[in-house]
Design goal:
Elements (H helix, E strand, L loop, with lengths): L16 E8 L6 E8 L5 E5 L9 H10 L4 E5 L3 H10 L2 H14 L22 E7 L5 E7 L1 H8 L4
Zinc ion binds next to helix 4.
Length: 159
């Protein structure tokens, strides 16, 4: 179970968990990934929420999880396997933002994605997106994520 169940409350999230869920919901059916963090003390933090489906409180997040469980993904980052899954599944632009956010708000919690050039895992805070392309509207996504070594290599001018 993806639940922390001391109290019998099935909507309690594990500590050190990143919750990805479908937020947004503006005109029409546009939605986007939103993120929340449950810290080491079990406290809720809103990393990014948008539109009427966004959850800026723990209560709203619990309601989203109960009502739309298939729209939520929970990564307990204390668990190395889940931290890897999170680093591998999260869109690059979001991953870079979350890595920065965690650096400021949850010191010691580090996502380690794979570099698309060398295949090695590295500290996601130092990652660099490459080859941006539009994915509709004003949103942009990167096709590749590079470790600092390879991001630097791409900046060099060929002689
Ligand atoms: Zn690399």
């Amino acid at each position: 179970m993806d639940t922390f169940n001391h109290t019998g409350d099935k909507t309690m999230f594990k500590r050190n968990s990143l919750i990805q869920y479908k937020g947004g919901g503006y005109d029409g059916c546009f939605w986007e990934q939103n993120y929340a963090w449950i810290d080491a003390r079990g406290h809720f933090h809103n990393i990014y929420s948008s539109g009427y489906l966004g959850c800026d409180t723990l209560g709203k997040l619990k309601a989203a999880y109960v009502n739309r469980p298939s729209d939520c993904d929970i990564y307990c980052l204390s668990n190395p396997a889940e931290a890897e899954r999170c680093a591998d599944e999260t869109p690059i632009s979001h991953l870079l933002g979350i890595a920065q956010w965690l650096d400021e708000h949850a010191p010691g919690v580090i996502l380690q994605p794979k570099c698309d050039e060398c295949g090695e895992r590295f500290d996601g805070r130092l990652g660099c997106g490459d080859d941006p392309h539009g994915i509709g509207g004003i949103m942009q996504e990167y096709r590749r994520l590079l470790c600092p070594d390879h991001a630097d290599a791409f900046d060099m001018v060929e002689a």
